[in-house]
Amino acid sequence: MSGIEMDGEKAKRFEEAVSTILEVIGEDPEGLAKTPRRKSVRAYVRRYRMDPKRCLATLFEGANDEMVLLGYRVLLYVRTPYAPDNAAGRM
C-alpha cells in the first residue's frame, strides 16, 4: 500500500472496505467495531515504524545541482500531560 494517501474520502472508504471484509468472513461487526478504524490508522502511520535505512538507502542518478524538496505529511499527536495532585508524586 505504499504511496496511498489516507485522508478524507480515501480513509473513509478504506474503513468501510475493512468493515465489509470482516462481515464477509463472518466476524461480528459489533465485537470488532473499532477494528476498521485501527486498521486504517495503522496504514496511515506505518511509515513511522519503518527502518530509516530502508528509506535512506535509495539513491538517484542525476545531473541536477539544485536543492530537491520532498513533501511529507507529519501526523501530530496532542496529549494532556499527567500531573499528580499530591506532593509525594512531584519531583
What does this structure look like?
This protein is 36% helix and 0% strand. The protein is mainly α and 91 residues long. It has one domain. It is flat. The protein starts with 7 loop residues before the first helix and ends in a 35-residue tail after the last helix.
- Unreliable segments (pLDDT under 50, ≥5 consecutive)? none
What is the tally of helical segments?
3
Q: How many DSSP E strands? A: 0
* Residue share in β-strands: under 5%
H/E element order: HHH
Distance between the termini: 46 Å
Computed over alpha carbons, the radius of gyration is 21 Å
Helix content: 25-40%
Structural class: mainly alpha
Please, what is the oligomeric state?
single chain
Any idea how many domains? 1
| Average of pLDDT | 69
Characterize the overall form.
flat
Main sheet: strands, sense, barrel: none
